[in-house]
Amino acid sequence: MPVRGAQVKLLIFFVAWCLLLVLAWPIAVLVLVLAPVIWLLSLPFHLLVLCVSATFALIKSLLFLPARLLGYRG
Predict the structure, then answer these.
(1) Distance from C-alpha of 46 to C-alpha of 44, rounded to nearest angstrom
(2) By residue range, what is the domain housing residue 28?
(3) Whole-number pLDDT of residue 12
(4) pLDDT one-digit tens code per residue, 13-61
(5) Residue 14 domain-assigned?
(6) Contacts with 31 (C-beta within 8 Å, 6 or more apart), sequence order
(7) How far, CA to CA in Å, does 12 sit from each of 7, 34, 54, 72?
(8) How far is it, in rounded angstroms, from Cα 54 to Cα 60?
(9) What pLDDT score does 1 carry?
(10) CA-to-CA distance for 60 and 68, rounded, in angstroms?
């Protein structure tokens, strides 16, 4: 089974957190508590990026519609 990018990021985050736990455990606990809060605060920005990319995809498809109707294969 191939390793995916999200799994690698999670493994790197876990190893870095374990290293931080050994070196400075109060900061590691603070990171563990604040990570979900930061993720929740970043959700609106992810939604904004999704909406902007969908808008650009719609504009692109509308601009290339005449060429596709005329049979262009790009």
Answers:
(1) 5
(2) 5-69
(3) 93
(4) 899 999 999 999 999 999 889 989 999 999 999 999 999 999 999 999 9
(5) yes
(6) 17, 20
(7) 9, 18, 31, 45
(8) 10
(9) 60
(10) 12
17 and 32 Cβ atoms separated by less than 8 Å: yes
Q: Is residue 59 included in any domain, yes or no? A: yes
Number of structural domains the chain divides into: 1
pLDDT the model gives residue 6: 80
DSSP 4: P
- Residue 74 within any structural domain of the chain: no
Q: Is the pLDDT of residue 3 over 80?
A: no
Smallest CA-to-CA distance from 68 within 57, 52, 60 is with 60
Confidence of residue 74 (pLDDT cuts 50, 70, 90): low
Q: Taking the alpha carbons of 36, 47, 14, 1 in that order, is the dihedral positive or negative?
A: positive
The answer to whether 31 touches 17, Cβ cutoff 8 Å, is yes
- Which amino acid is located at 24 in the chain? A
